[in-house]
What does this fold into?
Amino acid sequence: MRPPTRIRIGHLPFVRFLLALLLGIGIGYAMPPQQSLHSMAWAILVVVLVAFLGVLCTTRLRQHRYYSVLGFFTLFAWCVVGFIMVWQSDPAIDRLHFSRFESKGLIGHIVDEPVTRGNHVRFPFEVTQAYVRDGIAQVAGRLMLTINRENSLCSQSLNYGDELLIPTGYEEVSPPYNPGELDYKRFLAGKDIWHQDYLQAVELKKISTGKGNPLIAYALALRQRMVVKFSAYISDKDAYSVASTLILGYRAELSDALLQAFSNTGTIHVLSVSGMHVVIVFWLLSKLLWWMNRHQYLRTGKLVILLSAVWGYALLTGFSPSILRATIMISFVMAASLFGQQNRVYNSIAASAFFLLLYNPKFIVDIGFQLSYLAVLGIVFLYPLMRAAFPVGNRLVRPIVEYTWMSVGAQAGAGPLAAFYFHQFPLYFLPANLLIVLPASSIMYLGFGLLLVPPGQVASWIGIALEKLILLTNVSLSYIEQLPLASIGGIWLTWWQDALIYILIVMAVISLVARKKYGVYAVLGCTTLLVCSSFSTTLQSDDRQEIVLFNVRRNLAIGLVDERKVWLYSNLASVDDRTIRYSVLPKLEAHVPIENIHFIPQDSNYHDHQLYVKGGVIQFDNTRLLVYDGTATYGGRLDVDILVLRNNPRKSLQTLLATINCRLLVLDGSNFDSTIDRLVTEAGALHIPVYVLKDNFAYVWKLDADHHE
It folds into this structure.
C-alpha cells in the first residue's frame, strides 16, 4: 500500500488562520462578556496591526528572518478578532441593544421564515426601533417571538421581511431547569438571541412588508411555490413531506414518527439539506460535463457551471444556514479538486470554515456546523486510506465499496459527537445508508424533474413515480428501525470521553496505516481510560437511588430511579407528551431505555415490592412523598419526607402541618408568586426547609447518601 502523501504545514495557511481564530473564539466563550476587556481587546488589535505594518514597511519583505514575526502578528490578530466578534452583539457589550432602553413598544421585522405548529407561529424578530420616553430611538438586537392565533379573529399572514409593531413585554430566555435538558438559552444565544416574548395575535400590528434581504425573500418565495407544486402532484402526506424536506429543506410538514425513523437508522442527514444534497447535484453535473476536463480553459468553464448549479440549488432551498454552509464548503473543495490541488483539500476545508466563522463566529456552537465539518474531515481522512488498503477491481462492486468507505468515514467523524449530543448511536447506519443513497439520489433527480416540467400529464407521471419511490424508502427504513438494537440509546458521554474516542480513532488509523508503535500505545491507553470510566459510571448508576422532581412549569413530573428501574409519576398524558420528551426523558433515558420506563398517571394506584402509590402518597423504599393541593384530608398524622404543594392551597402551612409532618417543603410552578411568597414566609417562621421549584432547577433527592440537590 502506498503511504499517504506528506503535507507540509506551510501549504496549509488557512489551517493556521482557522486555529488562531478558533482559539480567540474559545477564549471569548470561556469568559463572561465585560466592556473593559472588550475595549482592551480592541486596543491590543490596533497595536498588533500597527506593529505588523511597521515591520512590513521597514523590511519590505526582503529579510527572511522577520517572516516568523509577521506570521506571529497575523495569527495573534486573528485570535483577537475571534475574541472580539464573539462578544460584539452581546447585550452587555452592544450599547444599542434594545434591552438597554426603557421602552413601551418595539419596531422590527421578521428575519427568518415563520414556523407554524398548530395555533402558534414562531420566528426571530430583528428590533430596529424602540418607543422610549423622548420619542423613537434607533436600537439593535433580536428576540424570539411566539404568536398565539388561537381564538383570534386576526387572520393576517406573517412572512419573512414583514415589519411589525409589538408591545414591550419580553423576558430573558430561561436556562435549562432539568438534568440533561437541551440548553435552549445557549442555543438561541448562538443566534444572537437573548430574549423572547409570547404574544396574542391581536397584540401585534403589521406596519409594512419587504424589510428583509431581497435575495432571501425571493429565495423563500420561490421555495414556497415549489412546495405548493409538490403538494399538487404528491397525494400521500408522508411522501409529500419527505420530498419537500429532502429536496427543498422545507421541514414544516414532517411528522415526528417519520423523523424518528430516519434518526434511529442513522440516515437523518438525508433530511438535513446539506453537504450530501449539494454533492448529489455536483456529481451528476460533473459526470455530464466530463468532456470539459481536457483543457485548463474548459476546466475553468466547468467550475463556473458547477458553482452556478450548487448556488442555484442553495437559492432553491431558501438559503437555509445548513445549505449555505455546505455550499461554501463544497465550493472551496470543488475549486481545489478541479485545479489539481487535491492534496490541499484540508486547506480548502479550513478556508471555508474560516470565512464562515469570520462572518459569524457563533456558528462554532451550532451542532449542524460541527457535525458537517467533522463528517467531511472523517471522509477526507479515512476514505483514501481505506480505498488504498482495500482496492476493488470490479466496476459494479466498486461504487458500493467506495460509498461504504465514505459512510464509515462520515460516521467516524460525526458519530462520536452525535452520540454526545443526542445520546444514541444507530447500529445499522451502514446498511441503512447503502439502502438510502440510491433512492435519495433518484428522489432528488425526480423531484428536480417535477419542478422543471410544466403542469400536465408528464408532471403527474413523475409525481406518481416520486411518491411510490418515497413510500418504498420509508418502508425500508421502518423495517431497519424495527430490527433488534437498531439504535443504542442512553449513551451519556463527558466531553473528555468524547475527545478520547476521537483520539482513539485517529491513533488506530495511524497504527494500522503507518504502523507506528506510539499509535498502538495510544490506542491501548485510550481504550483503558474509556473502559475504566465506563465501569466506574456503571457502578455508580447501579448503586444510585434518587427521586427527581422535574420543573415542568405548571405540570407535575416525578422520576423515581432505582438501579436499572425507573418510574414516572405525572399528570401529563404519557411519556410521548412533548413536555416529557423535552424536559424529563433526557434524564431518565440515561438510566433505562424509554420502553422500560413505567408511567404512572396522577391520581392512580400502583404498587410493587419497591413502590407504593395511592391518593398522592408515594412510598419509594424508605422515602415517602406527598403531592398535595389542599383539598384532601387525612385522619391522624401523616409523616412524609417531601411535601409537594400544588395549585395554590388556601390553608396556612401551620394548619397543614397539624396533620402532615414533613422534612422538606417543595413549591412547584402551579402556584402563584403570591402563594409562594406566603408559604416561604410561613415555612421560615416554622423552621422548615423549603425549595421553590418554580423558575428553578429540578430537585434531586438521593436516597442512598441522604444527600439532596
